[in-house]
Structures are given as structure tokens and as C-alpha cells.
Amino acid sequence: MSKPLVLNEDRLFPSDPTMRAIARRLYGEVKDLPIISPHGHTNPQWFADDTPFPDPANLLIVPDHYIFRMLYSHGVTLERLGIARKDGGAVETDPRKVWRTFADKFYLFRGTPTRIWTDHVLAEVFGVKVQLTPETADEIYDHIEDCLSKPEFRPRALFERFGIEVMATTESPLDDLRHHKKILESGWDRRVVTAFRPDPVVDPDFEGFADNVAQLGEITGEDSASWSGYLNALAARRAYFKQHGCTSTDHGHPSAASADLATGDCETLLSKALAGTCTPDEAERFRAQMLTEMARMSLDDGLVMQIHPGSFRNHNAHLFENFGRDMGADIPTCTEYVHALKPLLDRFGNEADLTIILFMLDETAQGREMAPLAGHYPALRLGPPWWFFDSAEGMLRFRRNVTETAGFYNTVGFNDDTRAFLSIPSRHDVARRIDCAYLAELVADHRLEEDEAREVAVDLTYNLVKAAYKL
Amino acid sequence: MSKPLVLNEDRLFPSDPTMRAIARRLYGEVKDLPIISPHGHTNPQWFADDTPFPDPANLLIVPDHYIFRMLYSHGVTLERLGIARKDGGAVETDPRKVWRTFADKFYLFRGTPTRIWTDHVLAEVFGVKVQLTPETADEIYDHIEDCLSKPEFRPRALFERFGIEVMATTESPLDDLRHHKKILESGWDRRVVTAFRPDPVVDPDFEGFADNVAQLGEITGEDSASWSGYLNALAARRAYFKQHGCTSTDHGHPSAASADLATGDCETLLSKALAGTCTPDEAERFRAQMLTEMARMSLDDGLVMQIHPGSFRNHNAHLFENFGRDMGADIPTCTEYVHALKPLLDRFGNEADLTIILFMLDETAQGREMAPLAGHYPALRLGPPWWFFDSAEGMLRFRRNVTETAGFYNTVGFNDDTRAFLSIPSRHDVARRIDCAYLAELVADHRLEEDEAREVAVDLTYNLVKAAYKL
Amino acid sequence: MSKPLVLNEDRLFPSDPTMRAIARRLYGEVKDLPIISPHGHTNPQWFADDTPFPDPANLLIVPDHYIFRMLYSHGVTLERLGIARKDGGAVETDPRKVWRTFADKFYLFRGTPTRIWTDHVLAEVFGVKVQLTPETADEIYDHIEDCLSKPEFRPRALFERFGIEVMATTESPLDDLRHHKKILESGWDRRVVTAFRPDPVVDPDFEGFADNVAQLGEITGEDSASWSGYLNALAARRAYFKQHGCTSTDHGHPSAASADLATGDCETLLSKALAGTCTPDEAERFRAQMLTEMARMSLDDGLVMQIHPGSFRNHNAHLFENFGRDMGADIPTCTEYVHALKPLLDRFGNEADLTIILFMLDETAQGREMAPLAGHYPALRLGPPWWFFDSAEGMLRFRRNVTETAGFYNTVGFNDDTRAFLSIPSRHDVARRIDCAYLAELVADHRLEEDEAREVAVDLTYNLVKAAYKL
């Protein structure tokens, strides 16, 4: 017998009745505010072409590494989930079977954000009335498939229904931004902007780095094999992105290392990087120098800079070889900020006109390094908890770790940072609920008055993010 | 005037009435389940011979490093506690005096797990009715001494009364397992199994390493001075242990480093290790290689592998010199897993038939490294919080740090990991209560439904541990 | 319209009614106990001369780096806050304008301890009835200015009104302690003692190190350029401090590194340090050696040793150049204790007559390293959470992280560690409230009985600190 799927209206609020009542009141002030999504990885083509989404499995499971990493940990092969192999080898092609596999293992997600997001997508986006179990899998699959064929489930219709005011995607400097152009020219009244993500052309360890840099030169008409031409080319692409609505850059380095090297050293490192002869240490120094160069350009062109350090990418050699990047095998590492960022901060940390948003995959740095740094340097702000920590407990820990040192106003609201478009309302809802839960604690123990908490709740949900990202 | 000793039936449950009621209901489902104790350090001879336990001090204090480390920190010498000196020098021999010293300082344990365990042992195991204070010390001593003389307080009777279904001890590969044999042959209907702990023969820094390896060769008839003979000897002992009921191995390395070296390098390292000429770095590489070798053998013979890294053993040079190992001076250290385990995981991480259980003494790795690794690699599971973190707060932090990324089903239930046999029911009771308290939070804020939480509670208490350890 | 400023009597207590009631009862036992302030940085001249404090801005804002670091992070220059430039350049000289800037940005402190302390100072010390906002800034400024002109707001009157029994300041070995002498000779019945802070003469990286050491030699008549003369000079100054009421030393090193070098190496390092030719590693080794020397001297003269490691001082090169030290740009760093302290502990860790109080700016070390070390070594105790962690959440985390391993009795009560004299009652009040809140948790979930919690609360507030600091 199937169990009803109901999203309790008090979910994620503290159990204590005093705090719960406060949280509920605060949430009432923010739950219907528009969604600002300043950083994410959805596909702009969806909104450019506005064609229907594919089947439930290819929409909800195949692109979601949160889901398939958990299934994989319990012995479900990526082939069974329909993930394409690099060698074109056989994988499951029946989306219904992929969906059933997910339903069979859905109990694994108990206590995880994926459970919360999935329930929300099913109940709110699709109006599913029963819980997902092996028994209800087919019925729900049919229901979603049916929805997806309707006009009100097309990308733009959902975007509007979700109350999204503006959403950023992320593109390589080599991208021609054709989808963003098409959206702009279509006269649609919603904003889908891009963010400048230069990893493919600033990280010597990125697959195809030398080719990417050569292509960068071709696109811009600069000699990208020379240090000055390379910098010019990057500045040109930043300007191009900015013309197409971009307000921010994003940097996904293995560490937060920055550098401030002499020009001669930069030239030498670039040559080695293009020749593929960098040692690991030299590649790290090149990336470090590029963080500082990007900060310098941000001071010039006003793009807000985001630093996402600390992921050991593609840790699973076997999966990387057979399936490529982003297969759920990126693992956080211990990340140092205080020494790492000093070269960059020595040059630009005191610039009140520059905004650098720091993210972390190492929660220990929140209170120890990040809040003290952001609570001092005018150029620094703290991004919301990222990736594995974009969760109820993770968000609460973040507020508890940073607020006492950095306050609320050195943070920048929420990022959903997702490829899973349908989960965006749920992710923002979780963030709003947890911020209200945290504020309710402060009100309940008289660290803050409720009228102030109301103001802070609105700022965290809407004002801070718009201001920080210049949206 | 003595105060009554009463174990409140709601102890360790959240104070909020809604959560407390849920926790109480969940606990009701698991409190009487049999105890599965898959990892510990009790003495198998107790159950082989079933002779009465000694006096209260030698039963409860002298072997318990949690107790004497705290007393030592407040200036009580180990001699006063009756701990034997290596030089045979004078120590307290009157167990009643040792007991009185403990009672005098019992206030030091306020807020610690030792307080919880001790109260439970006194109240539940011995039926003591008054709190332990300097004034009641003698009365309680007499009462326990009296109990210990009775048949119902012999090791096997207690084992049965505690509801233990199966318990693992830990032995060196050099152990002949005579006690386990005797238990098996005795026809007793309870299981006491061994675990294979090869540190004395795989860690070049272990006291007597070369002699131990030589002895390993003698026992197995292999040339343990050659790399292939050494590996054969280890495989042979694993087989011998398995014949005697062993289902798991255990590895207590200073770090989680693994390696995948060429055979020639292994041969060289073994020779140096046997000659006592390893540098610290070479000793570390040898241990690292042995983790990978042990994983390979586990894939062959099916023994579940436990890795317990990160303890700086015998930190107090003075105590080590005068009293030897395990004197309460083992201190946790910062422990890295992501780079450390990569060589091992590159070879065996994708094996769904292999189970490697990771433990930690560095809580920062829980959410940052361990949950992401275990939430991805099929071969990995997470052991419960260990040693200093086997406590109410430690267990709660563990669940809060790992569940959102790894879920419940990449964890393996509770380990008591103790030498203190009489504390086993209390330790399992604490774990059950805290798991129920955590689940009650999830239910109260509507992250999980209560029927699911009931299922999870039973899985955490009983099913997951039996499955993970193949018991 | 201004809002009333009211300090709720239940502030910082848990919201759950059961826990709140317990916390309230426990707090009732300790709220009126005298303040023992064993470590801080107030100016002894205040109490020697007992002249009125200056205007509100120069009393409450200019010396408080917690305040100006936050304002600076939001683009308020230090010049606007009236902080003196090293080059004598123009800064704001109107204290009322500085105060208005603070009031304009006071919302930035929502959720921070500065908010709690400021509200307490305004309401309790000055009897301000309205909340600080841009609109009420002038009115409050006038009120405080008026207060400061009255005799009951002079330093000694406030000291007495605050219920301070004894307070420590911190002085360099080069200080002649004239203010302390004057206080002693004045016949005042309160105690203001000094603490011996030798950083300027034991840290080769301290500004003016060689000159400082030369001056040390002059003061003591020792040849401070020789190792033995240098040590003699330090011992002589310690004796001088002790004669003037000092009971403790304090060491603010970048790391917790200790060393136990041969005399020849010490001589060489001192020579290099005086010549200014130390490498960074040599400077670190010199400081490390000096920690061990200071411990040795503490064993001789009985001064309690405090180690405050882990701050990256003067991280902002621009501010350091223009404004000097202590400009809110000191940032915590990852701090290791287990290996770092071993040389010192190998020599003196087992001395029950020695007290070394460890502090931390890296909360990860609390449970992993510090509690296990202090819960074992007789010479070690744990100082309260320091600096950025001297806050409601920080104090709660501290108790939760260390109590289960080290208990309460290896901690030493509260330190306010402040330059902001008027905030001292508030800081102690926060500490008392949070200790009671934590104890209320233990009582509510039956880990501790309420009569014991009462005893612990009094010990944490009064007895432990007096005993640990020999006050």
C-alpha cells in the first residue's frame, strides 16, 4: 500500500515550540520572494530553445551526481544508470529501468538532502501524491512523463512558475554564448546570465589546456602563447561575457593558492604549461598567479570574483578513464586560506570596490580562517556552504561558525550551484528555512530582536545576493 | 548521607518533549535487541576458562585507560593505581585502596562517558543503590566483591545476561588462538570470534618487529624474510584465523597512508625493516604498502578490513619507559584520507565484494573526506566514532557530519572497542540512545517519517553490523 | 522612534523550557560571584592614576579591534575611525563623528558578541534606555559623555562596581611596572596584577628584537648577548614581576612548537637572532626552545605558564605599514599541538607542580589534540576559548568538544582577555550564562544531577580560575 507524500509545512524548523513559531513567522516573510540564482550549472540551451525536457530518468537521475554517487557506493554500476561510457560501450537505454533502479535504492537517501529535494520535486513540481518506493516507481514515472509532455512543464514555463528573477549559468571562455544571445534576443522578460569560468584556459592540468589556450588566441585574435597576449585574450573574453550579461567569474582551483610573480616568471610558466612540461608545483604556481591576475581584471571590469577551491577532482581513476569528469568522485580536501590568499590580498584585499566571494569544502576553515578574513578585508565576502555542505546541517553549521566573527553582512545569500533545474525551488526553500531556523535561535535566546531578524531574513534571501553579484 | 543511584529512563534523549517522545518510542524498538560486538579487546581466556573475575579494582580500574588517564592528569601516579611497573618496582597492591582513590576522584569524570558507563555498571550489573563517593566507596567495594564470588557473575553468565549474540576479540597473527579453540570446543552456544590484527608483523616500528616476523615464518613454515614468503605467511595466518571464526582484520596505523609499490621496492623495504634500518619515511611506506596487500588478501579470502588510523601511540616517553604501551598516553592526530587512500582505492576501491571500514580520530575528516569517500566508493564503509569520540556528543556529531553525504547505509552500526567487558551493555545502550535521539531530530523536523526511523534504528543496532562484519 | 534597550534576563539560555529553568537556577548561583580576571590587556595606568576616561569613541571604539575590523570590512577606513597613522597623517579627530560612524554600521554586528557586549555596556554600565541606531547616536553619546565626567565612572569606581576581585594585565619584561607599584603602594583594596609576556625578547621576528634584548641586559646587569646571561636576565625579570604580584607568564607564538636543543645550538641561534640573520625556520626553533626554557623556569619560580599559539599577526601588509600592530588583521591558522609540544612535555609534562595552560585559535584541535593531552598530562590545563571563539557559540562548542575527554576539572574558568575594560562584566556574564546553559543540557538529559551542576558552575566561575592562576 502506498504512503501519501506530504511536505510538512514546518519541515526543517526547530522542534521547540517557541523557536518553531518564530521560524514560521520569519519564513512567512521570505518564502514568496523571487529566486535569485547567482551561481549554477544549468544548460542555457533549455531556455534558449524551450523544448520539452526528456524522460524522468534523463531529467532527474542521469545528470545528478549526488544521486548516482550514492547508488554507485552501493554497487549500482553507472552503466545500469544509463551514464554514457567514453568508449561507447553498452549502457542501460530504457529510462524506466533506470528510474526503477533509483526507486529500489531510494531508502539509501534517508537523512540526505537528495531525499528532501526529490520529495519536493515530486510533490511540488509534479504534484505526485504518493511516496517513491519500488511499488510506486512505475506509477510515478508515468505521471512525470505525462507532465513533461505538457506546455506548462517546458523550461521557460517552469522558470516562471518557480519565481526565478535571474539565474546564472557557467561557461568556458571558449563558449560563444549563442544560447544566451538567443535568450536575450527572444524578448523573454526573465534573465539568464552567464558566468565566466576560465579553468579550461588557466589550469595547466585541465584536459586539453594547450589546445584551449590556442583556441582562445584564435577567438580573440591575440597571440595567446605570449604572456601579454594571453592576458589580453582573457580580458577580451571577459568583456565579451560582460556584454552578454555576465556579472561574475568563477574559479575552481584545487587550492586557494595565489601568487604575485615577476612577469618573467609568468612568461616562463606559461611556456611550460603550453608545452605540457609543468611540474605539479609549477602548475600550482601558474594557477595561483592566475587568481591574482583575475582579481586585477575584476578591479578593472567590475566582474565579481568567485573562488571555489579544495576539490580533488576525478579521484576515482577507473571511472574517470571510462566515463570522464563529474562522475561523483570529486572529494573535498583540507584547504588553507590564510597563507594561500596573502599574495592576492596584499595586492587587492583593501579594495572596497572589488568583491571576491570565497567558498569552501573544508568546514574547519569557516570559523578559523574564512570568517576572520572576510570580517576584516573589504574585498572579501563569504559564499554559502557549497556542494556536500549545501544541506540542512551544513547550512546551520555555516551560520554558527561564521556569524559571530563575520556577521551576516559579509555573506552573500544562497547559491544553488546545481545542474538539476527542477530542484532549484527546493534548494532555495531549504536555505530560507534554515536561515529562519538559525535566526529563530538568536531571537529565542535574545541575541537578536524579531524585527531585526525579519530584516536579516529578507537580506539573506534577496538583497545581499543581488548586491553582491550586481544583479 | 549517600544519594540514591538511579539511571533515568530518558537519559541522553533530547529535552524537547516532542523529540523526547519520539526518541523514547524508537528506543523501545531497539533496547532489547541482542548485542553484536564486532570489534573489541576483551580477553578470550575469560570465556574459555570461565573463572571468576578478580576484585573490583583489578576488574574495573586497572585495565581501563580512560579511567587512569584522567586520574593521572590530576596527579595520581600509576603506582597508586596498582599498575605494574616494567622494572617490578613497588606499586599499590591493595585493591581496596585503589578503589578508594578512584572514588575520591570520581567527580573528575562529571560530563564524561566514563561517568555514564560506571554508573551503568554499578546500577545495572551489580545492583548498587547509592552513588559512588568517598563515603560510599567501601560499601560499594564490598558489594561488588561479594557479587564477583557468585556464579551468576562469571564471564559466561554475564555474557548471556548482557544479551551478547556474538563478540569479537583481537589477536596478533602470532597468537595460537587456544582460547578461541577451547570456547568453540566447549559447546557453548554463544560466539566469541577473533579479529586478525597484524600490526606486530607489518609495522617496522612495532616493538620486536624482526623477531615477530621471524616467529611468523616459523609458525607457518614460510621464509618470512623474503617478500613472497612473508606474504604467504600472512595469508596462511589469515586462513588459520578464518578457520577459527575470524571474519575481519584490523589495522592500527599512525596514518591512513596506502601505497602500491613495485615488488622490488617491497623486497628492499622488508629487508631494511627486518634489519632495523628503515628511515621513518621508509617505515611509513612499508606500512602503506601493507594496507594495500591486506586489501588484496581481503578480496581473496573475504575478511572484512578495518583501518584505525591516526593515533600517536605512547606519547608520554616517561610512562612508556616505565609502564609500557596503552597507558592512556595515545593522542589523536590530524589525519588525511583523500590522498592517503588513493593508491589502495585505485586498485580496489571499485570492488563491491570488498568491505573496508574506515575509522577516525580526527572528526574534521568525517564530513570533509570520509563521508564523501564512503558515499562514493563501493568498497568503503564508515566505522562508528572511535575512542575519544565514542561518547554522547561524539556520536551525535558523527551522525550530523556524515549522514547528509553518506546516508545511514554506508555506516556499520556500533563498535564498543573495549577491554572493559562489564561496560559493554552500557556502551551499546549509549549508542542506541544517541542514534534514537538523532533520528528523533530528523522525525521532529520532518526530514524522515517515524516508520522509516524505526527501520533505520533497527538497522543501525543490528542488521547493518551483522551484514558489514559477515557475522 | 527609538526602541527600548532591554537586556532579557534569560538571554543566552536554551529555549526549551526545561533546560531554561535549570539554566536560570544554575545562573542564580553564580551571577553575583566576584569577577576573577586572570588574563587581559587593560591599561594599569587607569587604576594607578584613576583619572576619568576620555570620550565615548576613544573609550569604546578606538581601542577595540573587534569593532573596527568589522567596520573596516565594510569599507570604513581606519582614518575615519580616528585610529592614529604612523606617519601622523590626518585622521578623524571629532569623537562624536567616530561614534556616529559606529552607530551607522551597528547593524553589521547583529549576531556577534560585540553586539551583546555593547548592549550590555550601554544598558548596565551607562543606564542607556534606547537601542543604538543612527537616530539615537547623538543622544547616547551625550549621555555617556556626561557619565564619564562623574566620579562614579572613574576606573577604580567601576572596578569596584563591577565586582572585580583581581585582574591581571600583561606587560613586557622591559616594563618597569611603575603603575602596578603605584597601585600597590596606594593602599587600594583591589588587586591589579601583571603577567609576564616575554614575546618582545624571545621572538626573533618581533619588531626591535635585538634592541629589546640589549635593553633586557641593561635592566638586569646581565650579558644578554650570551645564552647564559640571556637566561639569567629573563629569570631576573620573572623574579621582579613576581615581586610585583605576577603569578603567570604568557606566550603568543605563531605555533605551539617547542624544542629541547643542545646548549651549543641555543647559543648559535641567539647570536643569529641578535644579528638579525635567522632564517624563518631558525626563528621558529628559537621560539620553540624558549617555550621549553620558560617551562623550566616556571617549575623553578612557580609562575603559571600560558601558551597562546596560532595567530598570523599583522596579515594585512598595508595596514601594518600605515597603522602598526593590532589593527584587526590577526588571523587564526591551523595549529598542531601533539608533535609540537612533545619536546616540552618529554621534559616537564609529568610535573604535577607545573601548570601550563593551553589556548587555541583552531577549534579542530579542541577535541582531537588538546582535550586528550590535558586529560592525560599532569602539567597541562585548557584555557577557555580565545579571541574569535570567546562567544556564545564558541564557548558552547568548547564545552561540547572537550568535556567528554578532559572533564571540567582540566579547564581553568574564564579569561576575558580584553583591552575593553567596560566590557569585562558583560564578557564574564556571557561565560557564566553559557556554562550554565551547557550544564543545563547535561542535567536535562540526565548526564549530571543538578546539585553537581551547581557545584561545577561555581567551580568554573570562581574556584578553578583562582586555583589555576594561584590568585
Task: Give a verbal description of the structure.
Three copies of one chain form a homotrimer. By secondary structure, chain A is α/β, with parallel strands linked by helices. Chain A has two domains: 17-51 and 154-468, Metal-dependent hydrolases (TIM Barrel, Alpha-Beta Barrel); 53-153, uronate isomerase, domain 2, chain A (Orthogonal Bundle), CATH 1.10.2020. Helix content of chain A is 49%, strand content 6%. Chain A is built from 20 helices and nine strands. The first copy, chain A, has helices spanning 17-30, 44-49, 56-60, 65-73, 95-104, 113-125, 137-148, 155-161, 178-185, 199-202, 209-220, 227-243, 263-275, 280-301, 317-323, 342-348, 364-374, 392-406, 424-444, 450-468; strands at residues 35-37, 164-168, 191-193, 248-251, 304-307, 311-312, 331-332, 356-358, 380-382. In chain A, strands 4-5-8-9 form a four-stranded parallel beta sheet, with helices on one face. In chain A, strand 8, helix 17 and strand 9 (380-382) form a beta-alpha-beta unit. In chain A, helix 13 packs across helix 14 (280-301) and helix 19 packs antiparallel against helix 20. The model of chain A has no long low-confidence stretch (mean pLDDT 97). Chains A and C meet through helix 16, helix 17, helix 18 and helix 19 of A and helix 4, helix 6, helix 15, strand 7 and helix 18 of C.
